[in-house]
Amino acid sequence: MKLIAAVDKRWNIGYKGDLLVRIPADMKNFREITKNSVVVMGRKTLESFPGGQPLIGRVNLVLTRDENYRPKGAVIAHSKEEALKILESYTDKEAFIIGGEQIYRMFLPLCDTAYITYIDYEYEADTAFPNLDEHPDWKLLEESEEQTYFNLEYYFRKYIRA
Question: Which site in 30, 59, 66, 75 is 20 to 30 Å from 37, CA atoms measured?
Answer without folding.
Answer: 66
